[in-house]
Amino acid sequence: MRKTSDDLTISEALRDPLIAMVLRADGVKLEDFKQLLETAAGKREPRPTSVGNMIGALASRANLPAMPCFG
């Protein structure tokens, strides 16, 4: 996975003061939030590496042909 400057790792999210404030305000325990992030990360599909792969992945989910039709 390619990390961009907009992405937070799980450990960065757990240390982020704004996220910590929201969790406290919502009554969510840090350990529960960590479990949620780790579970979601484990279930996440890898990002497509190219536009072509992305179109193919979307087409297969929607039961459409992989080649877009323009015109």
Brief sketch in words of this structure:
With 71 residues, this protein is mostly helical.
What does this structure look like?
With 71 residues, the chain is mainly alpha-helical. The chain has a domain at 9-43. Helix content is 59%, strand content 0%. It has helices at 10-15, 17-26, 30-43, 51-62. The longest helix has 14 residues, at 30-43. It is elongated. It starts with 9 loop residues before the first helix and ends in a 9-residue tail after the last helix.
SSE order and pairing:
Blueprint (H helix, E strand, L loop, with lengths): L9 H6 L1 H10 L3 H14 L7 H12 L9
Q: Report how far apart the termini are.
A: 35 Å
Radius of gyration: 18 Å
Number of strands: 0
- The rough form would be described as elongated
Which band does the percent of strand residues land in? Answer: under 5%
Please, how many helices? 4
Low-confidence stretches: none
Structural class: mainly alpha
Major sheet attributes: none
Question: What share of residues is helical?
Answer: 55-70%
Short key terms for the protein model shown above:
71 residues, mainly alpha, 4 helices, 0% strand
